[in-house]
Amino acid sequence: MSNLKGKTAIVTGSTSGIGLAMAIGLAKQGVNIMANGFGEKDVAIAQIKACGVEVDYHDADMSKPAEIKDLIEQTEKRFGSIDILVNNAGIQYTANVEDFPEDKWESIIAINLSSAFYTSHYALPGMKKRNWGRIINIASVHGLVGSAQKAAYVAAKHGIVGLTKVTALENAKTGITCNAICPGWVLTPLVQKQVDARAERDHVSNDEAKNALVSEKQPSGEFVAPEQLAALAVFLCGPDASEVRGAAWNMDGGWTAQ
Ligand code: NAD
C-alpha cells in the first residue's frame, strides 16, 4: 500500500498538461486532490476522480494573492490538512526584451514565481504543525539556463529555483522538504502554441515544427512525458526522498548536460 494514501495535495494549474499528470500520479497513490486552473476543468476533475480519491476544485487565479490565501484556507477546511503542495501553474510569452509587453512581464512573474511564494507562505504553518510536508516547485530547464526571447519566463524560473533552496534550508531540520523539478520540452498545450508559431513562421508542417523545436535543444530528440515527471514527483513525496532537499532536478533529454 502507498505510504501517501490519505494525504492531501494541492496541484496548481491541474486542469491540463503537467499539472493534470501530477494530480493523476498522486491520486493513483491514494492522495486526495484539490485541483485548480482554468479551461476544461470538468474533464480533468473526472480523470482525477477515476483514481478513487476525494477531489475538489478551487478557481483561484494564481496571479492574485487574496485568491491564493482562500485556496489554502478552503483546502485545509475541506481536507483537514495540506500535506503536498505542487506549484505548477504557469504561462509563457516570447519576445525580445525591448519588445516584451509590460503586462506580460508582470503576469508571468506573478503566476510563474510569486504564486509559489504565496502558496508556500500560507501552507507552511500547517505543515510545520504536523512536521511533515512536501513542496514541489515545477521550474524548468529555464531555471538553470537561458533562451532568447523568454526574459520573463527565464527570470521567473531562475527565481523559483532560488525560492526552492531557501524554503528547503529554512525547513531542513523538519519533516518538510522543498524541491524543484526542471523539465525540458514536454508536449503540452503551453508548448503546442510554440510549435504552431514555428510552423507558421517557417512554413512547415506541425510535425516538422515539433521535431525542429525538440531537436534544437534536447539531445535525445524526444519530448519528456508528463507521466515521467509525475513519477519523479511521487518519488520526491516518498520516504526515500526525505533527504532530497533544495534540489533542482532536471528531466530534460540531456538539454542542460551540454
Ligand atoms: P499547460 O498550459 O498545459 O498548463 C498550465 C496550467 O496552468 C493550466 O491548468 C492552466 O489553466 C493553469 N493556469 C494558467 N494561468 C493560471 C492562473 N492565473 N491561475 C491558475 N491557473 C493558471 O502548461 P504545462 O506545459 O503543463 O505547464 C505546467 C508548468 O510546467 C508550468 O509552470 C510550465 O512553466 C512548466 N514547464 C513546462 C514545460 C513544457 O515543455 N511544457 C517545460 C518546463 C516547465
From TrEMBL:
Broadest EC class assigned to this enzyme: oxidoreductase
BP GO terms, sorted: monocarboxylic acid metabolic process
InterPro entries: 3-OHbutyrate_DH, NAD(P)-bd_dom_sf, Sc_DH/Rdtase_CS, SDR, SDR_fam
Transmembrane segments: none
Signal sequence residues: none
GO molecular function, a single term: 3-hydroxybutyrate dehydrogenase activity
EC code(s) of this entry: 1.1.1.30
Domain of life: Bacteria
Alphabetized UniProt keyword annotations: Oxidoreductase
Pfam families, alphabetized: adh_short (PF00106)
SUPFAM superfamilies given in the database record: NAD(P)-binding Rossmann-fold domains
Family: Belongs to the short-chain dehydrogenases/reductases (SDR) family.
Protein name per Swiss-Prot or TrEMBL: 3-hydroxybutyrate dehydrogenase
